[in-house]
Amino acid sequence: MVTFRSGAPRLLALAFACLSLGAAQAEEDYENSSYDIGLWGDLPYSAAQETTGLPNLFADMNAAKLKFVVHDGDLKQGSNSACDDALYFRALGWFNALNTAAMFTTGDNDWTDCDRASNGGFNSLERLDRERQIFFNTSYSMGQRPMRQEVQTEPLCLGMNGPAACVENRRWTVGRVTYVTLNVQGSCNNLCDTAPNSAEYAARNAANIRWVQDSFKAAKDRRSVAVMLISQADPGWDLSDGSRAPLRNPKTLAETDGAPDGFQSFLLALRDEVTAFRRPVAYVHGDSHYFRVDKPFLDADGRRLENFTRVETFGDNANNGNNDVQWVKVKVDPKSREVFAYTPMIVPGNRVAVAAP
Predict the structure, then answer these.
(1) Are 140 and 94 in contact (CB under 8 A)?
(2) Is there a domain that residue 325 lies in?
(3) CB within 8 Å of 178: residues ≥ 6 apart
(4) How many other β-carbons are positioned within 10 Å of the β-carbon of residue 297?
(5) pLDDT of residue 190
(6) Has residue 25 been placed in a domain?
(7) How far is CA 175 from CA 35, 101, 334, 336, in A?
(8) How remote is the C-alpha of 144 from its chain's centroid?
(9) What does the pLDDT average to over 198-215?
(10) How many domains does the chain divide into?
């Protein structure tokens, strides 16, 4: 029989308290540790980009030891290219070639534009159904180190057979930062082009707004220090450049160029959430094929939202081969004031205009 001296229980209690404090400190250190992620999209747009550009890109990202990577939509060019299942399965192979978790949000070239005759004349809703089946059929990401994600499982969107779960809308938290993907599309968000579908748009837009609101609430509940949202469309933020995005009154967020406006209600809801959150918010998109990091979002009084940053990834430029088959590295440091720091990563093997030194 083992006997204890009178002070033994106190010593054991102290030891357990120290262990608990140590575990709490380890958890806090993990939540506050920095890491890198990779952003890319609007690729590949040509055979050359697929056969040589992508392998170079993947090797570069794999060497960077990233926590995860996200493709912000458009797996091919918008016209004269098939939207068949072979495209989706090739893309699945690309994502699973990455040695980390790989996320994807759909692009208009992947489904809304697939009803163009030059893309095969598919039904766009049928194509979205297939993307949901191929890329989003579990609660895990793709890639060689899949990451569990929260999924918008309510049947708020539409598919070929009526209401469907918006399983492409996802959320995950790493450390003290919350990440969100949204099915927000170019081509007027499915309100224009070959076969616009206002019912599909209305359902998905309402679902996207709810997912944004739910995600900011989750971020607050988790005491996240920042939020990053990723979608395909460049919705237009102001009146600065109608050649790349819709022209929009930056105060009312109403489109001013006469085209169908598939984004105003979404942007108004997003602005409310960004303002209320107060901490850093990044909005990542592709679509207009122009790498940039800026602050184009204004409030109703015309004042810049200081905590909001737009990040547009590289993409397209197929006429110049692999010229823009590049990616963006984001240093995520929950302890820093702005949390996100952005670096354009120019892949040496994909340099076209200026040879690598």
Answers:
(1) no
(2) yes
(3) 171, 172, 215, 218, 219, 222, 224, 226, 227, 228
(4) 23
(5) 97
(6) no
(7) 9, 15, 8, 13
(8) 19
(9) 98
(10) 1
- Rounded distance between C-alpha atoms, residue 356 and residue 281, angstroms: 34
Give the model's pLDDT for residue 287: 96
pTM of the complete model: 0.92
- Tell me, yes or no, whether 9 lies in a domain: no
- Written as six digits, the tokens of 205 are 């837009």
Residue 41: give the domain boundaries: 33-350
Dihedral pair phi/psi, residue 277, rounded to 5°: -70, -40
Provide the strand spans (E) within 147-217: 150-159, 162-174, 177-181
136's CB contacts (< 8 A; 6+ apart) are 151, 167, 168, 170
Measured between alpha carbons, how far is 94 from 355 in angstroms, rounded to an integer? 26
Instruction: Assess contact for 190 and 201: CB atoms under 8 A.
Output: yes
| Segment 217-234, tens digit of pLDDT | 999 999 999 999 999 999
- The pLDDT assigned to 8 comes to 63
User: Residue 235: which CATH number?
Assistant: 3.60.21.10
Hey, what are 156's tokens?
């708020």
- Beta strand pairing call for 68-71 and 35-40: parallel
In 10 A of CB 157, how many CB atoms? 24
The alpha carbons of the chain give a radius of gyration, in whole angstroms, of 22
Instruction: Find out whether 104 and 95 touch, Cβ atoms under 8 Å.
Output: yes
Could you tell me if residue 357 is inside a domain?
no
d(CA 327, CA 314): 6
Instruction: Locate 181 and state its tokens.
Output: 């993907």
> Tokens 């290219």 label which residue?
81
At residue 271, the 3 state secondary structure works out as helix
